[in-house]
Write a structure and sequence with these properties.
heterodimer, A: mainly alpha, MetI-like fold, two-stranded antiparallel sheet, B: mainly alpha, two-stranded antiparallel ribbon, 12 helices, 67% helix, elongated
Chain lengths: 308, 304
Amino acid sequence: MTRMIVHRLLVGLFVMWGAASLIFLIVRAAPGDPATVLLGPDADHAQIVRLRASLGLDRPLGAQYLSYLGDVCRLDFGESHRLGRPAMDAVLDRLPATVDLTLTATVTAVIVGLTLGMLAGGRPGGLLDRVVSACTIALQSFPTFWTGIMLVLVFALNLRLLPSSGVGTPQHLVLPAVTLAFPFIAIIARLTRTSLVETMSEEYVRTARSKGLTERQVLLGHALRNSLIPVVTVVGVQVGALVGGAVIVENVFAWPGLGSLVVEAVANRDYTVVQGATLLIAGIVVVLNLMADLLVAQLDPRIRTGAV
Amino acid sequence: MADLTVTVERPPTAVRRPRRALLSLVPALVVGCYLLVAAVGPLLIHYDPVHTSLTDRLLAPGSRTSTGDTAWLGTDGLGRDMLAQIAYGARTAVLIGACTVTLSGLVGVVLGAVAGYFRGAADAVLARIFDVLLAFPAILLAIVIAGAFERSALLVVLALSATGWIGFARVTRGIALSLRERPWVDAARVLGVPGRTILARHVLPFTAGPVVALATLEFALVVLAEAGLSFLGIGLPPSTVSWGQTIAGGKEYLETQWWIATLPGIALSLLIVAIGILGDQLTARYGRGRPGRTPTTHSSARTG
């Protein structure tokens, strides 16, 4: 177990280095000199040269890359000239809103998805199964930015039940979280169904049934735990997609999280914020994937002891 | 083993009711209609995305415009016809989707086949690249790339391909990995056929089915992602009609002119649903690859 954790941590560190280098590459390949962009069209040549020197842009690319890596390790991405404050402060300010949104969406998706999946998988081929699978196809296919707008149209503008955008009360969280949860409800429900159907045809389930256990006891006591293993793995893998979904959903609902910050920063060529926010998101994804791996190992002793 | 299975394999598909068979064609028909609209629509409907008409702003579906035509699906905030925008949007979606899937499919299949067949350093490097790219949500990387450079259709294709090739590479790698142990590949190797020829003649043909099935699903993801980028205003240049842009434009008129944001969304959703079902059908049929059981480890990782 310890060996596995150490190995995964090393891979995680490597991935973060790769992610930081990739972002450095993209930002440096972008056209337009950052100093010129910052100072605007009115700046004279001397000003630009001075700012380039103070930003370190006049040094060789290799030296810039090394000092950038050092800054990344110290979580220092420099000043955001657009916001007039350190980029990392601005990024960390926006983090709690995104955590609220994604966490609520994850919990919603897991509860609703598991329930739907178990209902559908309990009797494969039944009416409920077909209704659920039709719903999941729709939920998985609709673009989140459009379902978000449609939910606003119905629940905020027509029924006037919920606020259409912004933050403040718990009600503000409902529409964004539901919108974000929709595709993940579908993914979890489909997976739970398949996994449950597979598990229920295993030998040990037949043994449990022939011992005279009720269907309920078989399901909860024997089948459920094993059928959850692929679900946990996929929830872990999907966390990245969930954060990606949040980027779009936050923009629909004017939710002040990391996603709307990234889009603002990209649109304004505010690269210090882009670097800080994308690397923070990458870090979160890496950590959550690691946690999902550990949880799977906890659920499945074969992985824990390395017997597979 | 093989001669045992031959006798028991057939029945489920042989006695299929004709009604079912017809129903299962519906997704393909719907996708076909979109392709037709994308190809023919812009030829029949004249539309100038830059031309705006103040008198025809925000007309309800079915109204008459100042030029005497009927705006069957209404007009948007700048007086542009919605029906034309949806038809031109279909062309944009299909073109961007086809280009991106072709590019990422080519890159993914070649890299995946090389890594899976030759193993060694190439395989290890590819696995690390997967790790790094998967740390970013696909749409986030596309946003950063698309936002960093001058807006253009080519840039959108490249930005979406940056992560799109991963799925193809994984599937192809899995198939190549299992094929390299097969007798006919061994036979070719013993005969002294060079590695590149074995790959092209004896390995790659078997990836065709799963790759086509995956390409269908990837196409849906790409169309969704392109609409998402355009919705955020960092996708295609404003002179190109995109469903995402039209939906974003309709957001501010949502309270009174619901059709602007709703209709392109329905067009988009219907296309994605149809492609999704078609992709699942193809995956069920060809997804596992013909030579026995090969591990296809792609999960439907859908983003926003």
